[in-house]
Amino acid sequence: MIVSKPYMERRSYATVRKVWPEVQVICASEPLEFDKYVKSIGDEKLVVDMLVGDLQRVIEYPSLGFAIEQDVPEDVHAAYISLTDKGFTSRLLSS
After folding, report:
1. What is the pLDDT of residue 2?
2. How far is CA 53 from its chain centroid?
3. Which one, of 52, 86, 53, 71, lies nearest residue 13 by Cα?
4. What is the rounded distance in angstroms from the CA atom of residue 95 to the CA atom of residue 86?
5. What is the helix (H) or strand (E) element at residue 57, kind and residue range?
6. Radius of gyration over alpha carbons of the chain, in Å?
7. Helix or strand run (H / E) with residue 2
8. Nearest one of 85, 93, 26 to 54, comparing CA atoms
9. Own/partner pairs for 31-38, CB < 8 Å, 24+ apart?
10. 28: helix, strand or coil
11. What are the pLDDT digits (tens) for 13-66?
12. How many Cβ atoms sit within 10 Å of the Cβ of residue 7?
């Protein structure tokens, strides 16, 4: 069982499946509504930056050998591009 922040579950799953492909993975996080999560962090921009950065890792880590590949729906990828274009980039990997 992997316990992580809510926005990191998908990446945590992909990383564990890469490192231990034979293990059955269960991911969990505190059940928290999005608005309450944002309030707990106290910075809306930071939360969006964290979400954008984590999605970048879901997209990029497989080619770096850190995680298994996962499908990213087109609308999610389009939102990612839109958010990076709007400056939500503080948590992105360096190029």
Report:
1. 93
2. 7
3. 71
4. 18
5. helix 44-64
6. 14
7. strand 2-3
8. 93
9. 32/6, 37/6
10. strand
11. 999 999 999 999 999 999 989 999 999 999 999 999 999 999 999 999 999 999
12. 17
Helices (H), 1-95: 9-19, 34-41, 44-64, 74-85
Distance in angstroms (rounded) separating the CA atoms of residues 40 and 17? 30
What is the per-residue pLDDT for 9? 93
Cα dist. 73→35, 42, 45 in Å?
23, 29, 23
Q: State yes or no: pLDDT of 95 exceeds 80.
A: no
Global pTM? 0.89
Please tell me the predicted confidence (pLDDT) of residue 6.
87
pLDDT for the residue numbered 90: 97
Asked whether 94 and 61 are in contact (CB, 8 A), the reply is no
